[in-house]
## 1
Amino acid sequence: MKEIYEITAPIYHPSPPDKWSYSSLSLFKKCMKRWWLTNSKYSNSQEGKYPAPSSIAIFHGNIIHTLLDKFNTHVKQVIDNSSDYTKVLQGFSIRKTIHTELQRLLNKENRTNPRTSIDYITSGIDLNYCINQFKTIIASVDFQKPSTQSTPSVSTKPNNNRTGGKRWIEINDPPICGKLDLVSRQDIIEYKTGKEEEGHIQQILFYAYLWWKKHSTLPDSLIIIYTKTKIIKEIPLPTEAELNQYEKELRENITIYTSKIIHKEISVSPDRTTCEHCSVKQLCNEYWNSDQTDILRENKGIEFDYFQEATWTDAEIQSLPPEWTPGKPLIGKAMTKNLELTIQIDNQKCPTDTTRKPTSARILGGLLEIKNGEWFLSSKTNTEVFWKYSK
Ligand code: SF4
């Protein structure tokens, strides 16, 4: 068992960030406790933040972003006004770039993120999917247009005079920062590899505000490209009055958030939508005790008689099999708050320290079934098991 799978209290609490990014602001707004637990320091986590496990979708997104970044660099290096764009495309080695990036990401995760299952990621990565998404974007976006042009820089025709790439912007007052996916002349373009969400519009408006503060002018356009559905959305530019109102609310929020962090006023309100994909729920007692999140746990109100199919669930094992000892795979009768069941946990997810026995376990993504007329909960490749010890 890796060290991170022992549940420990933070050793240091976080300070307010020097600069707020869009993701830190929205995380704080959604659930302050999640921000707090993520940014605290733990004796069994080497990284600055508590790690979140990477998913295949995150890997796909990172690979596609890197492809676009490298493609931009390639275009800038080779193209001139007389160049044949087809040849520029042919000169870019998509597969080689993907393989190099995949290896880099896997090495990094292996080195820094004990929660990522490398086997699970490598078995699910779809390189052809990444290539198709990449081709969709470069066929749709005119990376370069004259900066005076007022129509969006989205076309079906490639332009042979392209520039762009990720751009980091930060300002001190208010203290905010952002990494923009692509800036082409005066256009801000965001790629999204998942489904459409309201938060994407808020994100690009945050970047528009950041740009406005940095350059004292607005970008020419704000564009979101959904690579899966090939939908290209142009978001209307905010007016100056809207930007001023935005700034007022942003400053107020940063003041409130900073004060809450300094005074450790941690609010928490678990609910199904907020908690379902929370990466620190194993550390959050409210999640395990709230009626609002019952549906995500083993006591999701399933009637034994009507339970037909296996289901993925979280579960808190409050009473471990008395005959089981650490150093061995766990199998035996156990109790959650509401169920008596048999649990089976792989050896590699069980504690190896034979000198002490955990008192309970929090299981994320176990498989719940009925076997031989009894509830049966087992760990699978992607299941995480966190262990609690008495102090
Ligand atoms: S489990 Fe829910 S309430 Fe707890 S930190 Fe995560 S999002 Fe917040």
Note: The chain is about 35% helix and 20% strand.
## 2
Amino acid sequence: MAPTFSLLSLSLLFFLLLLSPLPSSSQLPPTLNSAKTQFQRLIRGFNLSPKHDVNTGRPGGQSPAVGPAMVEWPLKLPVYGDSGNSIQDLGHHAGYYRLPHTKDARMFYFFFESRVRKSDPVVIWLTGGPGCSSELALFYENGPFQIANNLSLIWNDFGWDQASNLVYVDQPTGTGFSYSSDDNDIRHDEDGVSNDLYDFLQAFFKQHPQYAKNDFYITGESYAGHYIPAFATRVQKGNKGKEGIFVNLKGIAIGNGFTDPEIQYKAYPDFALDMKLINQSDYNSVNELVPPCEQATKICAANGGDSCISAYATCNSIFNEILAITGNINYYDIRKPCEGSLCYDFSNLETLLNQKSVRTALGVGDIEFVSCSSTVYQAMQMDLMRNLEVGIPALLEDQIKVLIYAGEYDLICNWLGNSQWVHAMAWSGQKNFTATPTVPFVVDGAEKGQLKSHGPLNFLKVHDAGHLVPMDQPKASLEMLKRWTQGKLSENESEGRLGLL
Ligand SMILES: *[C@@H]1O[C@H](CO)[C@@H](O)[C@H](O)[C@H]1NC(C)=O
Ligand SMILES: *[C@@H]1O[C@H](CO)[C@@H](O)[C@H](O)[C@H]1NC(C)=O
Ligand SMILES: *[C@@H]1O[C@H](CO)[C@@H](O)[C@H](O)[C@H]1NC(C)=O
Ligand SMILES: *[C@@H]1O[C@H](CO)[C@@H](O)[C@H](O)[C@H]1NC(C)=O
């Protein structure tokens, strides 16, 4: 099915910004306005051109009246190869949820019931950014269907709806089809983001009570390395405080995530040297930028606010320095050069989702699609350098399964930095985890990765993949989801098969 169109994930855009050349270190860190300008230039350069900075829900001056808190409808998107009417029987839904702790925010979501069995877990996927929409992953990575070159939708044989009841949400407010007419609804930190997600989840399980007892998993990629631990912590708090419907949270999975900035920035020179992107003398000079980054990150952790914006500028010089040496590589997949100014071409998504007929089929009417929102990005700037690893040990002690996976050729959220923070994490199983040997992750008899598991913690390095693992390794990523949710990730494939006999 090798798609010829270039794919992209949103998360990326966040990093594009990080990577964009900064003023020399003697100059001030970028202001919010210059970040906005950079964001707009970059998304144009990558062939995304959202018409609006943020989704206000009023392209033509009026938002659709949304009555009850949650409204949901059957999704009627035509998919090539589908016989027509059966589309509504697939258990595909879309909807809007009026976020309660806001002035006017409506969160858009998709819900695809499992193609296999209703008892499969409920899995929510969060796309990175911050400021980009969930549709990027849905249509290019692990959704039930994908966009062909001719803008037809075609079925994805390895969509995660093959093993789960799959939910995508456009969040934070202002991205994708989620909107608010009130600026005060734009989120600035993980508290705001995770409270909105928790409210959504409560309403979702009220809407679908038959799924509330299923196992529940939170998954995502890239900047979702921030969202996911915060959201899982919020869910546990709600469960323990008996705030609402009990959420049967069983695990979190973060793919090529950005979770612990200090350790992950420090890993860039090591990864670049290991992968022969830079030589030893380059390495020595780039490495001199690491101590100031570590110090700036600590100041951000202590003081917050503007110190986090300057920490981002300081640390990002490490990345910029490496890119200055490597030239025109695709930092989401170092095997691939960028062609012209394009590493990815996401324009099909915007073209498709801005067609009136498609918006009507989706049920969003006149609401326009904002692929990535510069306003939302800017609003989250002080969140970027926060360390979200700190919430994960408590999840592990509660026996919440944690899967950290990473495509081996991604530079921006590389496997090495992820492996390093996972190993450095202090929890009761840390010693045993460290002492556990790495074993092959085998799919159809072929090694597709290297896995290390102890208790609830798993680290998987995925072979032949960049930042977008479900796009690069669709079958292996679906197998990963299946085995992990079934508690069989560390079982040998052959043992698993024997076990069935
Ligand atoms: C669109 O592309 C898909 C996938 O390549 C193909 O199967 C289909 O026939 C095309 N549809 C039209 C209308 O050309
Ligand atoms: C390392 O690479 C740089 C270019 O990035 C080059 O100028 C330098 O000569 C190389 N050094 C060695 C020891 O190969
Ligand atoms: C952890 O390792 C210690 C020392 O090897 C061992 O005694 C203990 O049983 C291990 N714990 C678990 C839960 O595997
Ligand atoms: C999986 O099976 C292979 C051969 O069948 C064996 O070499 C390997 O050690 C096994 N791995 C684990 C984790 O048991």
Note: The CA atoms of residues 275 and 409 lie 9 Å apart.
